[in-house]
């Protein structure tokens, strides 16, 4: 197979992941094209053959995208919605308004937070502020400079977890849900034509949350092109914090 189209969400996180996967394809002499997708476009793009490889789907949340004409491969990183704070705190179920004064939640994590707050009555009355994923670092830097004490809810990986702003807050009851698996969805007709060594390499490819947070930071905060960030990863120049 000489050409493959990668579909991915338009965020810096997913663009970085797609570019890293493209590096593996190109090493096997596969020409790569990219298609940016809105979340509501993914299912149609797969069904209509507009993309050959979706990078990436978060399982089990995105199982609906893996129909009978597709093959699910790999385990690139492990997304998880997490509680965090600007300083070390005890487990989330022990916190009160004496410990935190507000909740700042990334937009993609809001639904999970609203469910969790039903089991956290001591925190449910706190003011909630929803911010876009791209605006989270700036908002937390402002909170830090103004002496605020927010409880933060965001999905790892994210650039904010590369910026050394946050300490994770333990969630012993997994109120935000458990760890997911970022996997690739390959059209079955494409998989049958693909080189078996390539499929094996994609299946074994591991980026991990720290690398993905670093990629997200390089692209979303430092403004690097996703291909340049992927090259830095491939050449070992991308160093995750606390690696």
Strand content: 25-35%
Count of runs of 4 or more consecutive helical residues: 8
Which residues form runs of ≥5 with pLDDT under 50?
none
Terminal Cα separation, in Å? 36 Å
Strand order of the largest sheet: 2-1-3-10-4
Please describe the biggest sheet, giving its number of strands, its sense, and whether it closes into a barrel: 5 strands, mixed
Structural class, by secondary structure, is alpha/beta
Radius of gyration: 19 Å
Order of helices and strands: EHEHEEEEHEHEEEHHHH
Overall 3D form:
elongated
How much helical structure, as a percent, in the residues? 25-40%
Question: What would the average pLDDT be, to the nearest integer?
Answer: 95
Can you give a write-up of this model?
The protein is of the alpha/beta class and 243 residues long. The chain is 31% helix and 25% strand. It has eight helices and ten strands. It has helices spanning 12-27, 42-47, 110-117, 136-145, 188-193, 196-204, 209-220, 226-234; strands spanning 3-9, 31-37, 53-59, 70-77, 80-85, 102-106, 128-131, 150-156, 167-169, 181-187. The strands form two sheets. A five-stranded mixed sheet has the order 2-1-3-10-4. A five-stranded mixed sheet has the order 7-6-8-5-9, sandwiched between helices. Helix 3 links the parallel strand 6 and strand 7.
